[in-house]
Amino acid sequence: MDPVTSDNGSRMNVVSNHDVLYVGSQKTTDQATISSDSIIPQACGKKRSELSTNWISGGTYVPLRDRIKKRIAAGVPFFSLEFFPPKTENSVANFFARLDRFREGNPMFIDIAWHFGSDPGNINSETSSSSVAAGCVDCGMDTMLHVTCCPYTKEQSIKHLEQSKALGLRNIFALRGDLPRQLLKYATSCERKIAYVVSRLEGENPTVCKYRALDLIRWIKEKYNDYFTIVCSGHPAGHPEAPSYRADLLYLKAKVDAGADFIISQIIFDGKIFKNFLRDCREIGIAVPIIPGILPIQSYESIRRVAELSQLMIPDSVLVSLESIKNNDDAVRNFGVWLAVELCRTLFTSGSTTSVHLFTLNQEVSSRRILQQLGLWPLSPVRALPWRTFGDIYAIRCKEDMRSIVCSVRPESYVFRTCVTIDWMNTESAVPVAVTWSVFPGSEIGQRTVVDPPLFRIWLLALGRNDLCDFLMRVDIIQ
């Protein structure tokens, strides 16, 4: 492993020893000089059971806030992942197939962005944020849903929260949300207010953002108490609309005081900025966990677009490095992986964090490479049974104790093929059909195929034992 330089310029020595990484200033060559308080657990050296997120224990859901506190106290690193909903109905199945592969890494949680283009609160749309989040829960992932209060009324926001609870979601990322497009071009909140008044005088009716994330957090606590784990965002360099860095810190503290359980930071590219932000938060009394947000750079254009939409400042050193390779997508992705890994290592070895939150942009390869190089992607043996057990609050799956043998061959397809299975062979009125996905009410991922039951029984009975076994291994028959 490459040597690391500490903040004071001294050379750092990183020595791997079984399950931990010992990190300390290299003032002598004697390992005894390494400080015991700078031990960072090496995730890849841990047993699978030690890295398990354990979000269901004894049939009871364990709140995300409690599991994060436990992992931090134990010094065991973890990661979380952010996705946005698939854009088209045809890409929904691919999204969940990718999600199933991400599940192998055992993330602490995943979150789904509140994407206005997908009609995010419409549970009848397969591509809506709410529907996708519900599907993630049914796939066995502890899921967080972004919920914004701009441009909604309080009643509409409460309705979104009620729906989230009904879908089995237990984690909410409380955000203000994006401003209306016509106001984004103005740099300050004062200019935006003036632009709003002018547009009203000219007969236009721009959307008003009456409420902020602080209001949403208060509503959640007032109505649901501790049912939801609440997350808020933090801006290590200060929010671009805040009058000052100090004012933004005080607003962040107000969100925590109102009930936010932990903070996920805006995308960072500089470890020192995050370290200073963490110090400043602690100095004003913010004691909740703060997880740094890391973006794997996928392309030159994408990072430019992300920076523009989020008003994110990208260090000149990163832009200069990208400029020379901007026309080589593979080189840009490799650079993005290298940059993210180095940044995370800096954060880990400095003691700033033991966790990272990856903004995946729904890209699998780069995110997985980063986690593997950090040792956060544990290797696990093939499971004897292809499903996970759930607590009683997840009634969709929690009562299952037996599944067809085909599930062990293709476990990733199971959740797309089942929610309610009827013994159609013994039911005259039952018609066997293809894949159904009841998390999206009234809609299907697969094309429905209707088969005449009597003829199908005759065909099955005419098959020999070997042919029948081969057929059952390849096809599921679901009502």
From TrEMBL:
Which cofactor is essential here? FAD
Q: In which pathway does it act?
A: One-carbon metabolism; tetrahydrofolate interconversion
Pfam families named in the record: MTHFR
Query: Which biological process terms from the Gene Ontology are attached to this UniProt entry?
Result: methionine biosynthetic process; tetrahydrofolate interconversion
Which keywords, in A-to-Z order, does the entry hold?
FAD, Flavoprotein, Oxidoreductase
Q: Which InterPro entries match?
A: FAD-linked_oxidoreductase-like, Mehydrof_redctse-like
> Which cellular component, as a GO term, is one annotated location?
cytosol
Q: Name one GO molecular function term.
A: FAD binding
What family is this protein classified in?
Belongs to the methylenetetrahydrofolate reductase family.
UniProt protein name: Uncharacterized protein
